[in-house]
Structure prediction request, 915 residues.
Amino acid sequence: MSTRPATSGPVRTGPSGTVLIRADDVGVRHQGHAGFTPAAVSLTLSAGEVVLLLGPSGCGKSTFALTLNGLVPQSVPAELRGAVVVGPDHLDATTTPVGRLAEHVAMVFQDPDASVVTGSVLDEVCFGPENLLLAPDEILRRAEDALRRVGLWERRDDDPGILSGGGRQRLAVACALAQASPVLVLDEPTANLDPAGIEEFYATLTEVVADGDRAVLLVEHNLDACADLVTRVVALDRRGRVVLDGPARDILAGHADELAELGVWLPTATLAGRRLRDAGVLPPSSPLPLTPGELNALLTGEDADPEPWSETSSAPAAGIAGTPEPDAAPPVVQVDDLVVRRGGHGLTRRRREATGTVVLDRVSLRVRAGELHAVVGVNGAGKSTLLRAIAGVEPPPPGAVRVAGLDPARADLRDLASRVGYVFQNPEHQFVRHTVAEELAHALELRGLDRAGTDARVDDMLGRFGLRTHRAAHPFLLSGGQKRRLSVGTALIGGARILVLDEPTFGQDRERAAELLTLLDDLVAAGTAVVVATHDLQLVAEHATHVLVLAGGRVAAHGPAAQVIASGTLDDAGLRRPPLAEALHGTRWSGVTRLADLPGPDPAGHTEPDATALADPGTAGPPTAGVATLPEPDAARHPNPGARA
Amino acid sequence: MTATSPYARVERPRLLQRANPLAVAAAVAPGIVVAFTAPGPATPCALLVLATLAVAAGVRVPTRHRVLVFAGPVLFTLFASLTLGLWTPADDVAGTPLLLAAGPFEYRLGTWLAGLAISLRLGAVLALALVPGVASTGPDVVRAAVQNLRVPYRIGYTALASFRFVPRFSRELAQIRAAHRVRGTARGRGPLAAIRRGTGYLVPLLAGALRHAERVALAMDARAFGAHPARTERILLPFRGGDIVLVAVTWALIAAALWLPLSVPDVRPA
Prediction:
């Protein structure tokens, strides 16, 4: 490791420091692909380490993780060069059966649903040890120990399906522990979880690694959640070569610029600290913080007289967020006392509604053109139901909702679709045609638009969303980011000025999520009204003009984003304050929720850097209707807020 | 947890729930053949009653399943007897009492009895098939098959894991239908439009299913599934002496039911 440029100190290791896995120049070429991604990763994992593997989207982080227990190339067809050597017996991971390697390496995957194979929590934990042919007594002993460590022993008889997302990922950790493998590989374990689930998961993981007898390799985009836990960081470049390797703090704080350059997301606190240091607020010698708590300590240390939290949470906050209420404009979405019940029984609609449980309880909402309303709340708070009622996906009771002059309860779906576009969580669900161009033309053809007009609008849309070279491709064969853009394009092509998106960032990495939110920013700037449900509160803080907090089907708070975030309702609703707001709590900048609103080296520069950052001069056409043209390659540079400072 | 969970845990199991699942299945299997082939309606009727009594005595049926298990076969038999009888040629039942007449249409006692003769067989088969269905859980059937029938464990436990797909796919299908409705593909009525819609759902559903199956397979591999020629059976389900007795007694009862038609008079006039 001494050959790496970034290794500025000794790698922290556990009590024994035994090397448990060694990867030498590992490159992987998937079947049917031309290049090796990752290209060359060399890495050792020693007992007691928690190694965070960073890199831009598509650099092969997850693929590399799968080589450690032989899934690549044994279960996933691929060509592997280099070597992966596992355990004290120096097993070759390319030839030793995956089942044998499972004794040395355990894995937790992104989708909690995909790892459950049995009918009870206890059976689930026993599944691995049973496969290893251990004695029943030993299996039960391990299962109890593992379940107690993740806090699920009391729920051993439950069906894993009824656990929350966070609970199921804790169960996955227990399963890995029961395998007693000294290496634990976690591949984006929190990507499908809500904020409470993420916190729950990392609290459990922190306890598990405290013993220091294991090595953990973590692939994770949400650095705000895991920065505390990580001892060492390894960063890959876009092609999948190691460029930085060293103690977590040295790399994340000391090489923040290089990481931002790579397109890697940094902890929000680090980004904010960097900005403040460049602006001269923090001294140049000041260490960069990794967690909201550290930034807060730095700032309250600076400020002799921190302002109390309560005073800063009102008026100035709204001003900072820059969202004046355009009272003159009529709302394009108007929801009045919407009540939705579900699961009722009876023969008449009235009877069913009276007996069902209340999903939405007297929800009211006004959205005007040029506003982006984020709907937040824990799972089951009613977010999707509200969005579906607005777009008429599930018709609401008559009279409660008006969208661009129509009542979704009565309007023809075709009329409604031309005024309000709805984007589903999984873009694949809404694709109905066989090429990208047909997919875009679909709504226009249904409305009987002539051929020439349809082609012109499809061309325009393909250009705006960076899909021109994929015109004839099957929508299912696009990359994740392209599918998402196509789904937004199909929702808007009919001329809709209102866009409703249900958790469009779920299961996606921060880079994809930010790309989408930047696209929405541009739409909003061009006068589209956007309503979006999401779990990512820092994204909400950065992009939303308004926030609606739902708790148990009721509106807990609704107003300008900065005010709502500062008010503490998020905590009451079972959510977490976004990392920046938490870091700035009690400092001179209480109430600031967006990085761009902190003093920076270029105070005026934050108004439109997103569009310029995205526009790649090589591929960009002329921007249309205020919407930035996205570059064609999906792996293009993304607007990391860090790049602005 | 849905009412149809294949995993439901049993509190204080009764006789049939303690028995080896294979024994329960083997015990009722000949009954199903007999119900189809027995000469008169009395045998199926007896089998229906026997099966229902066996469940009542030998299985602790969850409250929400009781109507289905106990009333289901009987209600099915009665309903089917009314409709199946309509297929009987009118000449065959001409002499029996008239129950209902509407213009040229006549519904006679013989019509109903002819229907009942068929529906009793179907009802008996239903009742018999319900016995192993409610007495054994999915995991136990797999365990017993792997342990006693030498079914390869890779097949058995993979089948068990695939039960998990059902609720996931039904959720996904609901999402896809809503999405396609919004896209305006749900237009038109009748079977042709329904088929067109259905094929439209197929592509996204299959794409999602394949991806999910692949993930599950990777997760199972990573947990050493298939690492050894055998895996530990934590819960043993041997075929005990009691199981043999259970099978023998049940077969004897079924054989006894075969003799019943000799002592029951035929209602049809000669």
Remarks:
- Residues 510-525 of chain A form the longest helix (16 residues).
- Confidence is low (pLDDT under 50) at residues 1-15, 303-324, 603-645 of chain A.
- Chain A touches chain B through 67 residues (CB under 8 Å).
- Chain A is about 35% helix and 20% strand.
